[in-house]
Please model this.
Amino acid sequence: GQQLNQSPQSMFIQEGEDVSMNCTSSSIFNTWLWYKQDPGEGPVLLIALYKAGELTSNGRLTAQFGITRKDSFLNISASIPSDVGIYFCAGSSSNTGKLIFGQGTTLQVKP
Amino acid sequence: KAGVTQTPRYLIKTRGQQVTLSCSPISGHRSVSWYQQTPGQGLQFLFEYFSETQRNKGNFPGRFSGRQFSNSRSEMNVSTLELGDSALYLCASRTGVIVETQYFGPGTRLLVL
Model:
């Protein structure tokens, strides 16, 4: 079945540093999504990407939909303590409610 | 607009029991999807309902079932609970008409003893 490989698995960085994480797939996706999840809560949508090559920003966050449609990355600039959490990529290959999720990247920020 | 709501937020059951979880989607959203999240398996898709019909299904046993009502609210049922069913159950809603993003609820944390 479809799988998403997300890396790195975890990151421990200093406040103010930039962060980069990515996802690769064995299959083509039509939509890439990036979510952040805080403990005990559901994932919150950060950025949605709908077209190959699309580059989208949301404040300090920037994400890109890879040209091959099999990968995506998320950058966080000038990290702050509230960026702590688990970041998930997710892909969808058709107009269904089924999202395939990456394993998540746990981000810790040291003040 | 109110977000996706799920009830109850926490639940403790024993093996062999059954459980029903509820999800109220964002107003105007006709699609509700359910996911199971565990530390070992991550987020896995259970099923999607759209206009009271199951539109897509993941690879879970028949003990996991769901339904959707005419007001788009959805329920998920797990029968004959097993220890491995302990998880965070998330529902997500979207309009379901075009390819667009899903919005997740806070989840129901189920513990099976």
User: Anything to note?
Assistant: The interface with chain B takes residues 1, 30-31, 33, 35, 40-45, 48, 50, 88, 90, 92, 94-104 of chain A (CB under 8 Å).
